[in-house]
Amino acid sequence: MKGLTGFKVAGAAAVVAAGLAGWAAITPAAAQTAQPQMAQAEAPAAKAPDRVLGNPDAPVTIIEYSSLTCPHCAAFHRDTLPQVKAEWIDTGRAKLVYRDFPLDGLALAGAMLAHCAGDNRYFPFLETLFQTQSQWSRAPEPAAALRNVARLGGMSEQQFDSCLQDQELMTAIQARRDIGASEHSVNSTPTFIINGRRVTGALPYDQFQKVLEEAAAR
């Protein structure tokens, strides 16, 4: 899948470094302690609705729970999803429903920014974050690196700051994560629910295809 047109992290060498030290600096302080206060069914729908790639009426539904800082999730989006998209989603045989399952504060911040990018730019923004994960997620200053990604994606400084201070959006994403854990026993990423069947891990395309074929045959 292609990212945003012209959306590349400038000066990659400047943002590549080890670890996630300092991720809390980019996340609103409340992110570390906030607990969803609104009804679970209402919170995600209000600010973090399901994002659907493909024909909503496709016979096979792939629900994906992923974290933007998860290397296995990035591997799936890089190595497997393009072929799934070409052979299943673009042909109308399947649809992908993406749901955030942030494993840390930096992943939560990235998820918030993707939602703030808007409906038409959500998936391009998401894919760009996965494709450049090793750059922004390991940067010595994650806040600056992720801010740079957002800026190159067309987001202003004010929009960036406003997005990460959106308490309702943060709560909605956390609620979506909690629903995934309680309803589908999601405890690692990526986890997929394919027509009701739970599948875990970044499977190579040939294995993922077998699961899709079995779902289509049922």
For the biggest β-sheet, the strand order reads: 1-3-2-4-5
CATH homologous superfamily label: Glutaredoxin
Please provide the count of β strands. Answer: 5
Residue stretches low in confidence (pLDDT < 50, at least 5 long) are 1-42
Termini gap: 28 Å
Radius of gyration: 17 Å
The helix fraction, in percent, is 40-55%
The biggest sheet, with number of strands, parallel, antiparallel or mixed sense and barrel status, is: 5 strands, mixed
CATH architecture group name: 3-Layer(aba) Sandwich
In terms of DSSP E residues, the strand content is 5-15%
**Count of alpha/pi helices:** 10
- One letter per element, helices H and strands E, the order comes to HHEEHEHHHHHHEEH
CATH topology: Glutaredoxin
The pLDDT mean sits at: 82
Going by helix content, strand content and strand pairing, the class is alpha+beta
Name the shape in a single word.
globular
Give the domain tally: 1
CATH classification, class level: Alpha Beta
Structural features, described:
This protein is α+β, with helices and mostly antiparallel strands. The chain has one domain (38-217): Glutaredoxin (3-Layer(aba) Sandwich), CATH 3.40.30.10. It is 48% helix and 11% strand. It has helices spanning 12-15, 43-47, 71-89, 105-116, 122-131, 133-136, 142-152, 157-164, 167-184, 205-217, and strands at residues 51-53, 60-66, 94-100, 191-194, 197-200. It has a five-stranded mixed beta sheet, with helices on both faces. Helix 4 crosses helix 8 and helix 4 packs across helix 9 (167-184). The two termini are 28 Å apart. Mean pLDDT is 82; it is low at 1-42.
